[in-house]
Specification:
By secondary structure, the protein is mainly alpha-helical. It has one domain: Four Helix Bundle (Hemerythrin (Met), subunit A) (Up-down Bundle). A two-stranded antiparallel sheet has the order 1-2. It is globular, with a radius of gyration of 16 Å. The mean pLDDT is 95.
C-alpha cells in the first residue's frame, strides 16, 4: 500500500508540474491558476488533517500567483511523500477525525483520504487543462496516469 501511494504522489507532482508549466507559458490563465491554487491549498489542508495539525490559515481558494506553484508543488510532495513513507500497513486504515471548511465534523479512513487527495488533483488539473484549451492552447500534453507509468524505467 505504501509503495502504491508513494507512486501516486510522484505522478501527482509530475502532473501538477506539467500544468503549471502550461499556465506559466500561456495567456488567459486566470481560471487555471485559481484551480491549481485551490488544488495545492487543499493538499495542505488535507495534510494538516491527516497529521492532526492545526487547520491551515490559507483559504481553500487562495489568490496565489502561478510563479509560486513550483515551490509549493515541491513542498507538498516532500511533506506527503515523507508522511506516506512513515506509515505502516495498519496506518492506512486508521480513522482521521476532521472538520471541513464549514465546520462539519467527519471521520474517514486514511486510505480514503489519500485516494481523495490524488483524485481531487486529477479532477482540477483536467479542469485547468480544459480552460487552457478553450483559451487557445491546441496541443495539450497527454497526462493520463497509464502514460506516466509507461514512461517510467522498467526494472
Amino acid at each position: 500500500m505504501k509503495n502504491h501511494f508513494l507512486h501516486l504522489f510522484n505522478y501527482d507532482k509530475y502532473a501538477n508540474s506539467v500544468i503549471t508549466q502550461l499556465i506559466l507559458n500561456s495567456n488567459h490563465t486566470e481560471k487555471p491558476t485559481e484551480l491549481m491554487a485551490h488544488l495545492l491549498a487543499a493538499q495542505q489542508i488535507w495534510y494538516n488533517r491527516c497529521n492532526n495539525l492545526p487547520a491551515s490559515t490559507s483559504p481553500l481558494w487562495p489568490d496565489w500567483e502561478a510563479g509560486t506553484f513550483t515551490q509549493i508543488i515541491q513542498d507538498n510532495y516532500d511533506a506527503w511523500s515523507k508522511f506516506v513513507a512513515g506509515l505502516n500497513e495498519t496506518d492506512f486504515y486508521r480513522r482521521i477525525d476532521y472538520q471541513n471548511s464549514k465546520g462539519n465534523k467527519f471521520n474517514e479512513e486514511l486510505i480514503e483520504i489519500l485516494t481523495h487527495v490524488i483524485n481531487h488533483g486529477t479532477h482540477h488539473r483536467a479542469q485547468a487543462a480544459q480552460y487552457l484549451k478553450l483559451a487557445g492552447l491546441d496541443n495539450l500534453p497527454l497526462m493520463d496516469y497509464i502514460l506516466y507509468v509507461r514512461s517510467l524505467p522498467k526494472g
